[in-house]
Structure formats: C-alpha cells, structure tokens
Design a protein that fits this description.
The chain has about 450 residues and is α/β, with parallel strands linked by helices. Strands 10-11-9-12-13-8-14-15 form an eight-stranded mixed sheet, with helices on both faces. The chain is globular, with a radius of gyration of 23 Å. The chain has helices at about 15-20, 30-40, 55-65, 90-105, 120-130, 140-145, 165-170, 170-180, 195-205, 235-245, 260-270, 285-295, 310-315, 330-340, 360-370, 385-390, 395-400; strands at about 45, 85, 110-115, 135, 155-160, 185-190, 210-215, 225-230, 255, 275-280, 305, 320-325, 350-355, 375-380, 445. Helix 5 links the parallel strand 3 (about 110-115) and strand 4 (about 135). The chain folds into two domains: about 5-215, 3-Layer(aba) Sandwich (Rossmann fold), CATH 3.40.50; about 225-390, P-loop containing nucleotide triphosphate hydrolases (Rossmann fold). Helix 3 (about 55-65) packs across helix 4 (about 90-105) and helix 6 (about 140-145) crosses helix 8 (about 170-180). The structure holds adenosine monophosphate. Adenosine monophosphate (AMP) binds near residues 24, 28 and 51. Adenosine monophosphate binds near residues 27 and 315.
C-alpha cells in the first residue's frame, strides 16, 4: 500500500491546487512510481492496467518540468512544442488533453489536441499561437508538419500512450517519421496496458536505458471488475442483451461489437425497443462521435454501442457495466474493453456474450488474463421461437458461409417485432435501464457446472 501524497512528489503548488480541485487525494500506484522517474529525467517504460491513472502519471511531471519555461508572452516563438503526446485514437487524444488542461489550469502552460477526421484548418490557428504540450494522433500531426503549421525541433519530452495499440493499428511508419523530426536529446516515455514482445522491441528502439515499471501484472484485468460469460447462440444475443439491459441497475452501459455495422444495427434495434441507445465507431463523423459520447456521459443515452476504436479512449467516470456483444478475436482488446469499467477503484461488471463460434477466442482471453471466467448457459425457451428469429439474427453478418447480401436490406427499416413475449414475473425484467416499449424473448440462464 503506498502512502505517498501528491505533495511528497515535489509538485508545484499550482499543480497541487488543480489536483485538489479534480478531487484527487492520493496518487495511484502508477503515479507514485512514474512521477519521480519522469522528474529525474529518465526514460520510462510503464505497463499499467487501463484506468489506473496513467494520464496524470506522465502529465503531472511534464507540467512540473515545463513550469520554469512557462511564458506570459503572446509571441508564438515563446511557446514552442516542448512535450509531445502521441495517442492512437481521437477519443483518447481529446481525453488526454482535457486532463492535461485540467492539471495545467493554474499554470501558464498551454496545451492543444490535434486529430484527424476534422477540418485541419480549424486546428491551424490554435497551433500557430504556440503551445507547450501537444497531444496528437500520428497521422494528423504529420499533416501539420507537412503544412508547416507545427515545428517539433524543440520537443524535450515524448510520450507514446497506448503504445501497444499504436503498434497494432499500424502506426509504426508514422511514428518513425515523427521520431526523425524530434531532437535526439530528449526524454521518452512509453505507456502500454499490455506487454507483448513487439512492445518490448519497440521500447528498445525508442527508449534509452528506460526505467521499467509494471504496476499490476501485465495483461491482467482490473481486480474490481466482476467478469461473467453467457454462452449463447448468436441468434439469441440480441434478446439476451435486451434482457440484461432491462435487468440491470446500471444507468450507463457500454456495449462492444466487432463490426461497425453490428454496432449501428444494434443501436437501431434497441432504439426501436425504447432503449436510449447510440452507436460510436470509426464511420461516424468526429462530431457525431463527440455528441454520442457527451450524451452518454451526461446520462441522456443509457446504452452506447461501440467497436474497439471506441474501447481505448473512453474515460467515463464510474462506468458500471461493459457488455461484449461479441468478444474480440485479439485477446488484448478484451482487457482494454473491460478496462472501461472499474476505473480508479470503482467496481464494475463486464459481461461477455459468447457464441459457440467464439469460444476459441474466449480460451485465448482466459489464457491471457490467466484465469477462467465464470460461465452461464443462456438458452431461448422455445426452439421454434429461435428458429423464427434466426433469419433476422445478427449471425448472418459474421457467418463465413453467408451469401453476399445486397448492401441495403429492407428488413433493417422495419420495426422490431418480438416473436416471444417476456415472462413478466422474471425478476430480471423489473428494473429497466430505460423503459422498453416492447418485450423481447426471455432467455433462460443456467449456471454452468
Ligand atoms: P487514466 O488511467 O489516466 O485514464 O485515469 C483513469 C481515471 O482515474 C480518470 O477518470 C482520472 O481522472 C482518474 N484519476 C487519475 N488519477 C487519480 C487519482 N490520483 N485520484 C483519483 N482519481 C484519479
């Protein structure tokens, strides 16, 4: 148990004030370990679970180090980019910069976020005024470099956040181009929730004699997240999801699908059933994504359905429940997805709906997290009902044998019509997350022996 306080970490009063205002009382373990190392000027390779307070672990010492360089001058030349934080997704970029801004609010240091998917021209004037801390996705940063709206030759500190994800998403060529633009003399910090061999290789390439910290066992899932698996036919997943949503006390539920099309379809289906749901994925415009996320954070949308793109960046305080409508084929993604709940000490529930075809992925996940997840069988009560629902089930989408369908299926525009009405005495149906107008088939759940 660490008893360090933020004041023990040699942070300036203006930073401590902002932390107090953010409601932070004690540093999280990754903060307690990382902050002194970064202040010392060492390179760092940090393996930390999602939701452990990684952002402040690098942002606070960066602010502390840059404080003497803060300037009141309006000249852009007095505000060169001194710290560059690279992140893989737009959502994460926005959230990291929001945190930096909150921690820096009593300092004169400026921060900015740039990411793709929005008009580059809207970012240019802000960049031109000069910022000390720039949070960016790699592609958009390079666009700005090409347009000469940013210079990176005074960067003293580089942060690669979610480095494993950057690797997965194929950012290596962009990263190498960016690195070539930075001064050789600099401090580099790398954060990664998972510690694959590739990540270790990457760290050997980018970091110089790094200090290694690993706060929790790498690849472990947050201990305060209760995990559960329902073994269920793909065709029954929608009914089970609706049932789980209605049976849950959770006011906010994040649902993950593998594909964008399933996310959109599921959102539409749930909306028709009276659940306030929305989808967030890479095909949505940046504005739509931000609006959906804001509505979810403010509680106007109870169920947010997303693909893995959404998994990384989202930081929603006290998110009580995550449901994997489909489990990811990359086991690391499971860790990231369920890391959306149980953040910063809060408890959470992570439920996965696993079809027989997905059980192989489940085995991989259990191998990675090094424990078996509790399983229950979920079965539709009437086989006939299932057969009737099957043609409209989501299983078409990912079935390898499924014939190619026309891009527009008129079925999607029809209102959802349940085939079996729910048993109202089922206790699970009594507390809806939002009031459904229609019932969907009740699924029987049996604990697996
Ligand atoms: P992160 O892992 O950086 O995404 O942080 C996860 C969540 O924990 C965010 O909501 C932070 O605002 C919050 N957080 C970070 N550090 C602390 C702290 N020392 N005390 C309380 N909450 C924190």
């Amino acid at each position: 148990m660490n008893t360090t306080s933020f004041a023990d970490l040699n942070l300036a009063p203006e930073i401590l004030k902002a932390l107090a205002e953010s409601g932070y009382i004690t540093p999280t373990p990754v903060q307690a370990q990382a902050i002194p190392i970064v202040l010392e000027g060492r390179d760092l390779m940090a393996g930390a679970q999602t939701g452990t307070g990684k952002t402040a672990a690098f942002a606070l010492p960066i602010l502390q180090k840059l404080l003497p360089l803060a300037s009141t001058s309006t000249s852009p030349a007095r505000h060169p980019v001194r710290a560059l934080v690279l992140v893989p997704t737009r959502e994460l970029a926005i959230q990291v910069e929001e945190s930096v801004k909150a921690y820096a609010k009593h300092t004169r240091l400026r921060s900015l976020v740039v990411f793709g998917g929005v008009d580059i021209k809207t970012q240019t004037p802000h960049l031109k005024t000069g910022v000390e801390i720039l949070v960016a996705t790699p592609g958009r940063l390079l666009d700005h470099v090409e347009q000469k709206t940013v210079q990176l030759n005074q960067v003293q500190i580089l942060v690669l956040d979610e480095a494993d994800r950057m690797l997965d998403m194929g950012f290596m060529p962009d990263l190498k181009r960016i690195l070539a633009l930075l001064p050789k003399q600099r401090q580099s910090l790398m954060f990664s929730a998972t510690f694959s061999n590739e990540i270790k290789k990457l760290s050997a390439e980018f970091l110089i004699h790094p200090k290694l910290i690993e706060v929790a066992r790498s690849n472990a899932t947050a201990e305060n997240v209760t995990q559960k698996v329902y073994l269920v036919a793909q065709a029954d997943k929608h009914a089970l999801l609706a049932q789980l949503l209605r049976g849950s006390d959770a006011t906010q539920v994040l649902v993950f699908t593998k594909t964008k099309i399933t996310a959109s379809r599921l959102a539409r289906q749930l909306q028709r059933e009276g659940v306030s749901a929305d989808a967030i994925h890479g095909d949505k415009s940046q504005l739509e994504r931000i609006q959906a996320l804001d509505a979810f954070k403010q509680g106007r949308v109870a169920v947010l359905i997303g693909t893995d793109v959404a998994a990384r960046g989202l930081d929603i305080d006290q998110l009580p429940m995550v449901i994997n409508y489909e489990i990811p084929s990359a086991p690391e993604d499971y860790v990231h997805r369920i890391g959306r709940t149980g953040r910063a000490g809060a408890s959470g529930t992570a439920i996965s709906l696993v079809s027989p075809e997905e059980e192989k992925y489940l085995k991989e996940i259990e191998k990675l997290i090094k424990h078996e997840i509790q399983k229950e069988n979920a079965i539709a009560p009437h086989p006939a009902a299932r057969a009737e629902r099957a043609p409209r089930g989501e299983h078409h989408e990912r079935s390898h044998a499924a014939p190619k369908k026309p891009s527009h299926d008129p079925w999607f525009d029809k209102p959802y019509e349940p085939t079996v009405s729910a048993t109202t005495e089922n206790k699970q149906l009594e507390r809806p997350v939002s009031k459904p107008k229609k019932e969907v088939a009740a699924i029987l759940v049996r604990r697996q022996s």
